[in-house]
Amino acid sequence: MRWALLGASRIASSYVIDAIRAQQGAEIVSVLSSDAGRGRAYAERHGIAGSVTDLDAALGAEGVEAVYISTTNEKHHPQAMAAIAAGKHVLCEKPLATELSQAVEMVTAAREAGVVFATNHHLRNAGAHLAIREAVASGRIGRVLSMRVFHAVSLPEELRGWRVADAAAGGGVIPDITVHDADTVRFHLGEDPATVVARAGESGLGQGVEDSVMSVWSMPSGAMVQAHESFTHPHAGTGLEIHGTEGSIVARGVMTQEAVGEVWIEDAEGRHALKFETHNLYHRALGLFTAAARGEGRPSADGVDGVKSLAVALAVREAARSGRAVDVDYGGL
Question: The domain spanning residue 111 has which CATH number?
Fold first, then answer.
């Protein structure tokens, strides 16, 4: 598969370029950057044959079958729609768009065009999360009563920029981290949040966008979810807890891009370590995406998954701004 990268991003250089190249026969043809000099330097640094500043040039390069979109959030929709119209398979960073209607349009267009459209929700590819999901689904902890996700971190200086200062580009902790937690909750519990309440604020880092948020989600099953996301907590640690009628799953250090962390089950018999695989998250994601493009199976997180994680995040933002409970709108999907 021949790829074009739309965005000379840090996430691509740190994880996705390697994961693409880990797939048999894969090749990255070019990288798109709005800054010609930056694009050339990026391509040279990562051994990519070409760099372009024009989207049509990126999509029109000979043999390109797929694109990976990791530009700022407000660019995802127009770039994805152009790629879909050109018949390319699309792997898009989260959130899929800044508006729900745009994300729904992207998924619908890809379905009609017959191309694979996926969301790069990396966490559901982690061995820890796969083991947790299996434990919940197999009834290890009985009926789920509640879940807590804590994903408050200190955003590194080099990742701040538009994320903490540009609402128009999709900045703020809600589109950056709450979408991940929404996908993680859906992945583990197998149901979509129905109603949310929330409070958000600027606790020292955000400049016109929220940098911290806490929310509570009501699930159709009656389970309740508590989520905490922040850019300003250097020592909080990350993890999740899922509490059921027969036991609890506790995970620490698993809300990350690496195959790390600790997971255990607490029940009437005591504490039991939950073993998990330590494969590369992105290698797995790109492997499933590539297979789906061949007509074999589905990506780890498809476009509908991306729409639904965005829908939850948007509901959290509306609830925080309005001070009222908000029903989650999934755009008909």
Answer: 3.40.50.720
